[in-house]
């Protein structure tokens, strides 16, 4: 489990790409100081497991499903990546709950600056039902607030600190980004689907309303 608050921007040292999988070696000066084999690290929002490490770098494997469903397959040596270690129970939840299981990818359509904000429109082909204005979304592992939702895109805003502390500040139109939608929205959709099944699980719109989950 992660929070979407990036702890370090690392850089790719080596990308060993097979037909449907990858092994990544990533330079890190901060996270390796308290790292163990088997640790979960979110790399551009994708939860990966540390298989080996030194004082300055660590290695992770990318399985075929992750290779297909994320933008990691586009990584090249020297590329910068967002890094976040798994949330400790005593840690602060500064963003929102992020699982590190990417739902899909989106394409940056346009970028515009207004005062100290940078607005980014991201095109998507699926998952818009999980987004709402002022809701949460993870973009390349960064917890962000949704500012607008349209038929085939949504808009986020990057403050100067986010642009400086993550790779999102260097993104441009046409770039692919990893997207993870809010878990609560996905669970709600799943639960609501049971009311039309032959054997409902006992959760209906009426019971949700009775317990304050719906207006």
Automatic annotation (TrEMBL):
It comes from the Bacteria. It catalyses: 2 6,7-dimethyl-8-(1-D-ribityl)lumazine + H(+) = 5-amino-6-(D-ribitylamino)uracil + riboflavin. InterPro entries: ATP_synth_asu-like_sf, Lumazine-bd, Lumazine-bd_dom, Riboflavin_synthase-like_b-brl. Lumazine-binding repeats lie at residues 1-96, 97-192. Its EC number is 2.5.1.9. Residues 1-96, 97-192 form the Lumazine-binding domain. Pathway: Cofactor biosynthesis; riboflavin biosynthesis; riboflavin from 2-hydroxy-3-oxobutyl phosphate and 5-amino-6-(D-ribitylamino)uracil: step 2/2. Transmembrane segments: none annotated. Catalyzes the dismutation of two molecules of 6,7-dimethyl-8-ribityllumazine, resulting in the formation of riboflavin and 5-amino-6-(D-ribitylamino)uracil. This is Riboflavin synthase. It comes from Terribacillus halophilus.
């Amino acid at each position: 489990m992660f929070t979407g608050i990036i702890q370090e921007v690392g850089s790719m040292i080596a990308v060993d790409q097979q037909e449907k999988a990858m092994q990544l070696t990533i330079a890190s000066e901060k996270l390796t100081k308290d790292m163990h084999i088997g640790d979960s690290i979110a790399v551009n929002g994708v939860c990966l497991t540390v298989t080996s490490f030194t004082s300055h770098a660590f290695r992770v494997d990318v399985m075929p499903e992750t290779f297909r469903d994320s933008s990691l397959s586009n990584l090249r040596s020297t590329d910068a990546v967002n890094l976040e270690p798994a949330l400790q129970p005593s840690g602060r939840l500064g963003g929102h709950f992020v699982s590190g299981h990417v739902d899909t990818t989106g394409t940056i359509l346009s970028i515009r600056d207004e005062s100290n904000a940078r607005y980014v429109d991201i095109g998507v082909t699926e998952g818009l039902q999980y987004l709402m204005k002022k809701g949460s979304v993870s973009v390349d592992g960064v917890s962000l607030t949704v500012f607008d939702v349209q038929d085939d895109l949504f808009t986020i805003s990057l403050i100067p600190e986010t642009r400086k502390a993550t790779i999102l500040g260097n993104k441009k139109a046409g770039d692919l980004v990893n997207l993870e939608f809010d878990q609560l929205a996905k669970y709600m959709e799943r639960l609501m689907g049971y009311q039309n099944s032959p054997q409902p699980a006992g959760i209906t719109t009426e019971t949700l309303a009775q317990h304050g989950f719906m207006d």
